[in-house]
Design a protein that fits this description.
Number of strands: 5
CATH superfamily: Response regulator
CATH class: Alpha Beta
Strand order of the largest sheet: 2-1-3-4-5
Number of helices: 5
Order of helices and strands: EHEHEHEEHH
Length: 133
């Protein structure tokens, strides 16, 4: 298990294979994972339990784009870190606080990006991550 692997991570992707692979890969490191197959499901999850430390989301999804989704999540769950993944976007248009991961990616890149985003996460730096404090 990675140090700090008790972080709670919300993974959002409309592609079932990507959602499954990313969720399983991060769970294997010991992170607590909640997988959401759409932005609407992700918002429902955050409204039920606003204690996520990190959101790992696709950028291009039906109904709502990743940057819009993380903006809404930030209103409910402030301080959560953000990783946005895409193979079809210029990173210039992404939120400044987001870490970007270009698809396709290696699992080692996913792990490094998640660790970097968690290290920058204000919730975890202040010692209040993962338990709703």
């Amino acid at each position: 298990m990675v140090e700090g692997a008790t972080a709670r991570i919300l993974v959002v992707d409309d592609e079932p294979v990507v959602l499954s692979v990313v969720s399983k890969a991060l769970a294997a490191l010991g992170y607590e994972i909640h997988a959401a197959a759409s932005p609407a499901k992700a918002l429902e999850a955050v409204e039920r339990d606003p204690s996520f430390d990190l959101v790992v989301s696709d950028v291009i999804m039906p109904g709502m784009c990743g940057p819009e989704l993380v903006k809404k999540i930030a209103q409910i769950c402030p301080g959560a870190g953000v990783v946005l993944m895409s193979g079809h976007i210029d990173i210039q248009g992404l939120p400044k606080h987001a870490t970007f991961l270009s698809k396709p990616f290696l699992m080692t890149d996913l792990y490094a990006t998640v660790e970097k985003a968690l290290a920058l996460c204000p919730k975890l730096r202040n010692g209040s991550g993962g338990n709703g404090d």
